Amino acid sequence: MNKDTIKINYEKVGDAVNTVTTLNDALDTGMGNINTYKSALDSDDIFMGPVADASMEKFDEIIKSITTAIDNFKTISSYLEQARSNYETADEKSKELFLSINDKGALEITEGLAATPYVNPNASQTEVDFINRVLPVALELYDKYGILPSLTIAQACKESAFGTAYVGNNYYGIKATKGWEGKTVNARTGEQTPAGKTYHINADFRAYDSLEDSVRDYGEVLSQDFYHKVREAKDYKEAAHAVKAAGYATGVNYDNSLINDYIEPYNLNQWDPK
What we know:
By secondary structure, the protein is mainly α. The protein has two domains: 3-104, Helix Hairpins (Orthogonal Bundle), CATH 1.10.287; 125-271, Lysozyme (Orthogonal Bundle), CATH 1.10.530. It is 60% helix and 7% strand. It is built from eight helices and two strands, in the order ααααββαααα. The protein has helices at 3-42, 50-104, 125-145, 149-160, 211-222, 228-232, 236-245, 254-263, and strands spanning 184-192, 198-206. A two-stranded antiparallel sheet has the order 1-2. A hairpin with a 5-residue loop joins strand 1 (184-192) and strand 2. Helix 1 (3-42) packs antiparallel against helix 2 (50-104). The chain is rod-shaped.
């Protein structure tokens, strides 16, 4: 259960509390009216005799039943109020946990998709640590844009060599194209022709304050219209082919490399929705 579900649930409990409170108020009003009628019957000036005595007994029974009902509603209301309080507390705790884990770069809970820390005995500690750093934000991008976590993580791993080769906290090799108003850094980079011939150029790249900022801006880039097939992809293979077809990179085998060198051997699709 994520924090948004918790919030919805405790709001529903709150509605139930309000309903019970309204019923309780109505019973209290009814009790007041019955006591008024009982007092009138009990007055010697108004009514006397066996019929009045029988009526008084019936009123006593009704009052007893209503009193029991009121007590029960109060108990129910108390339980519901406690449940709402518990939901609210759980909601706040989930937010705190999410934020604290983000700050540490570790992982236990995120919004939307559930996740567990990445473990791979066949991967190096550097690789494992890097994947765990990218993972929380990758899940965030899936919730926001529909970009599969496997693709987000795989591209970060490929473009930055698992966080060991990057400039300006740019882990996705995103160039500072026209319209970019943020920081930049100039660096030498390799490109490929359609025939597969490699050449090098100097280019301006976007620069960020942190890895998280880099991942989120990657999500912003892929939120553009010409990447819609990436966001609509039903599995990692379709997503990898779509990001290559949309012109993300010039590498001839860029899409196959994402699949065969990163997603499948590192089991990065384990967080994709099944």
